[in-house]
Amino acid sequence: MVQIFIFCAIGLAFASFMCVFVLAMRRVFLGHSENKRLGLEHRVAPLALDVTYGFGSEIEATLSDDERTALAGVLRRYARQLSGEAQQQITEFFERTGLVARELSRLEHSLWFNRRAQAARALGDMGSNSAIKPLMFALANDPSMDVRSACARSLGELQASEAVGDLVDAFAIANIPRLVSGGALLAIGPSSLEGLLGLRKSEDPAVRRSVCELLGWLGGPSDSSALRQALHDPDSSVRTAASASLARLGSSNAAQELCDLAVIDDDPEVRLAASRALGMLGDRSSILALVDRIESDEFDVAREAAHSLGRIAPQDTVKGASENPDNEYIAEVSDLIQLGLL
Amino acid sequence: VSFLTTFCIVFGLFAISYFVALNGIYLGFTLLSWRGISRQRYRHSYTALEQAFASPLTPAVSVILPAYNEESLVGEAVHSLLGLNYPRLEVIVVNDGSTDRTLSFLQEEFDLAQIHHPLRTTLDHRRVRSTYISRRQPNLLVVDKENGGKADAQNCAINAASHPYICVVDADDNLEDDALLRVAQPFLDDPEHAVATGGIVRISNGCRIEDGIVRDVGLPKSRLATFQIVEYFRAFLVGRVAWSRLGSLLIISGAFGMFSRRVVEEVGGYWPQTVGEDAELVMRMQRYLRKQRKPYTIEFVPDPVCWTKAPDTFRGLARQRGRWARGLFESLWRHKRVLFNPTYGLFGLFAMPYFVAFELFGPVVEILSVILLPLTIALGLLSYTFLLAFLIAALMLGTFLAAAALLLQEFSFRRHVHHKEAVRLVLYSFLETFSYRLLVDLWRLLALVSVASGNRIWNTKLYAASETNYNGN
Fold first, then answer.
1. CB contact, 8 Å: A150 with chain B?
2. To probe the interface with B, which of A3, A7, A14, A16 has the most B CB atoms within 10 Å?
3. Which of the 8 DSSP states describes residue A216?
4. Measured between alpha carbons, how far is residue A125 from residues A49, A75, B46 in Å?
5. A58 or A259, which is more confident?
6. What residue of B is the nearest CA neighbor of A123?
7. SS3 of B315, please?
């Protein structure tokens, strides 16, 4: 037994020593490499500006490998903030120096999922259209969700309208978080609409709901008919999202249907969303429905209806509060109106 | 003498088995954590927090701050919360019947105006006296209520919350700018299944804090606080990460946790009859969701950082650890039916028994071992050679576990950048096993004895919080 303890103690002492040794070495190494990187970045920062002005090719020949890497790091950060001609110059720099090709090779061949994901993310920053197809391929086929998510983000950054189909598929089957695929579709903009509209009859209610939500951010008044149809969807989460999106699009012609939903829908979440939508639309024809909702037993619905009423008819709401001091929802809205906070 | 000898032999064998089992689990957890943290570290390099911040699809959050006699801290805490990088959030401060100037300070600092603000009646809490909104920051709501304890104040805030997710913080906390976005990541990735997440809590003693933001990370002069830094690394980066990977996380710190409001309401909110309301809520959620057989996730996310003040006096630390031990006992006792119940999977078969055997009764075994050791030697049952070998092995094991936790934080989310501080932390990890840990075990044991003897005076002090704040300061 004593021998076992002694062996264990020796093993653990060695393991502890190794932990401390690795910690110390890492600090020394990190400190050295970080100082070096900062120094290089400081030196190449003015050159990065020259690249954005189109003098990249003249500079490249004078750079060492380390300086080129540092310059690429600075330019990647710039690329996220810039657009137009300056971004185009940065992209050309990355293509000329072979960095796009290097990241493409990592994306396609690396065995480590984290390296493939980093490459996918870098390709989005670099802004090269030559990366779109490989990114689309990886989005559809890579086994790692992290890599697929990074591809979707980069495709969004590249505003790759040809990737809309794949992103919509990813959105439908949710093989990456819908927030990521939805975010990419939002970044691509209205050219995503056609693909999204194709999904509105999907069997999965989560897909139909997300489509309605995205339509509210991407669509225009012409898309309101699709959303009005969705107000009659058998799934309540779809009706909720459609109500919110109609309000965002300002579809006041949907006011009557929203009034009906606010009053008679079975699901309180739908009644809540419809009441909120009515306030955003500001249609005075919905006042009666909202007054009816304020009397509801459901806290969130009644409170939201009162807020909506305050937005549509502020003076009447303040007057109503003084006539009916027991109604706490109206009293709150009246206070907010008087403070100028609604 | 023969009875004593038999007892010492049996207990000695039990203590050695206990030691082997506990440290075997710790070693397993360390390996599990390496995998979990490595993955999280990789994700840092390619996730895009700025996109989540800019996205209209990111869900809104209500941040809840219960405050009792926090006049000196609450202003900084609220400023820090209002400045968080998160697209849509409201901050709800509940003044839980403070006897100091907490409310009047808030009124002046944030230009509060009294308004009617209806509250849901979903969860029970003490009477609300008045509600206020900030004229300058309309997303700040202050609720003034009668004193009912922290859990009661949190329930009140949940009733006042407008958004589908709630984030619970303490008044002596300072969240890093992007902490809320990071802790919300599981909700953004999988909104259908995520129900609760927790972030890492780190100790801010010794740090330079301005306007509620930690500007410069440093180590405190206090030895006690420095030991706690080493302890927190192990507890969060090893313990919580591993439990999270096993899907059996039982504790999300009351200092920093995010929850689905709907699920919290379904389980009945915080339980005001315990001082361990944070752990009890998570246990109840685990129990409820497992019984429902619904897929869900309760996760610990190791990179969102919440800085908190640690007690740096013996009295303060003893009070805190006593409160934690008592809270753990009350929570475990309330959910005793889960123990070894296969209906609850790993939660019932491993996590709960672990917490009972090693967290709750750990101090009993450890302190008893220390007391019986001289007796065992006096009875000639233990040779000095054996004892020395065992102590050296135990010391090395404790050192290795602490060093591994230090290495984990170094590789993952290093904040202590000065080399001198790293050396000091290594030194403290060596000293911790036979000094600080024994002291903490003693306080936990005293708390357990106090619970067993039904010490009502202690209870009264803890629940009514008549003179101190929630942290006993």
1. yes
2. A16
3. H
4. 17, 9, 11
5. A259
6. B46
7. helix
Residue A222: pLDDT band (50, 70, 90) is confident
Nearest to B407 among A19, A117, A213 (CB): A19
Tokens representing residue B82 in the block: 């209002």
Contact A299 B121 (CB under 8 A): yes
Quickly count helices (H) and strands (E) in chain B.
19, 12
* Tens-place pLDDT, residues B129-158: 999 999 999 999 999 999 999 999 999 999
Residue type, A86: A
Q: At what angle do helices B436-452 and B362-378 cross, to 10 degrees?
A: 110
Terminus-to-terminus CA distance in chain A, angstroms? 76
Asked if the Cβ–Cβ distance from B56 to A186 is below 8 Å, we say yes
Report pTM: 0.89
Which DSSP letter does residue B351 get? I
The helix-helix angle for A145-157 and A132-141 (nearest 10°) equals: 150
DSSP, collapsed to helix, strand or coil, labels residue A202 as coil
Tell me what pLDDT residue B468 has. 58
CA A86 vs CA A92, B312, B391: distances in Å: 10, 54, 66
Secondary structure, 3-state, B75-137: HHHHHHHHCCCCCCEEEEEEEECCCCCHHHHHHHHHCEEEECCCCCCCCCCCCEEEEEEECCC
Residue B227, both tokens: 């030991």
Residues 331-390 of B with CB under 8 A from A: 383, 385-386, 389-390
Angle at A319 between CA A318 and CA A324, to 5 degrees: 100
Averaged pLDDT, A149-167: 92
Rounded alpha-carbon distances, angstroms, from residue A179 to B162, B191, B296, B339: 22, 9, 18, 38
CB B109 within 8 A of CB B135: no
Token digits for B50?
A: 């700025």
Q: Which residue has the tokens 């990541």?
A: B185
**What's the confidence (pLDDT) of residue B22?**
93
Assigned token pair, B453:
């003897």
Rounded CA separation B251/A48 (Å)? 48
Separation between Cα atoms, residue B127 and residue A138, nearest integer Å: 57
The reply to whether residue A186 touches residue B410, judged by beta carbons under 8 angstroms, is no
Strand partners, B67: B95
Q: What mean pLDDT is predicted for residues B107-111?
A: 95
Q: How far is B34 from chain A (nearest CA, A)?
A: 13
Categorize the per-residue pLDDT at A101 as very low, low, confident or very high, splitting at 50, 70 and 90. very high
Chain A contact set for B399 (CB, 8 A): 12-13, 16
> What residues of chain B lie within 8 A of the CB of A14, using their CB?
none
Q: Is B419 on the interface with A (CB under 8 A)?
A: yes
Select from B381, B396, B423, B430 the residue whose CB has the most chain A CBs within 10 Å, as the one to mutate to test that interface.
Answer: B396
| Chain B residues closer than 8 Å to A299 by CB | 118, 120-121
Average pLDDT, chain A: 89
pLDDT of residue B434: 78
